[in-house]
Design brief:
Elements lengths: L1 E2 L8 H8 L5 E2 L2 E2 L1 E2 L1 E2 L4 H11 L3 H13 L8 E2 L2 H10 L3 E3 L11 E2 L5
Amino acid sequence: MIGNKTLETMDGALLRRIYTGRVVMVQGKSIQPVNLNTGDSSRDLFMKAVIKQSDDDYVAYWIVRRAIGKGTPPPELESDQAVLDYVRSTSGAIGYIDEGHLTSGVKILLSLP
């Protein structure tokens, strides 16, 4: 898990609440989460380790939330580089990437197994 340099580390429970739309502000900052596209191996790991549900269940969860007017899912980006660029340039942004693509300009919020 990576975040904009202005953010502090976060635990899995907080990240789960952010990615399910239950928390939108942390440390007085508006949080802007992004996902990788469905089928990406980093997304699969994130769903298993942090969200603790399958990707299909997560997508279904957001279909219901959107239908009842309880928000929209985090936007999906097509690559680790797109996530890095977004997180680096957007205050409050968080995302996940393969650790092999990690570069400077972002902060590690949580290391996934």
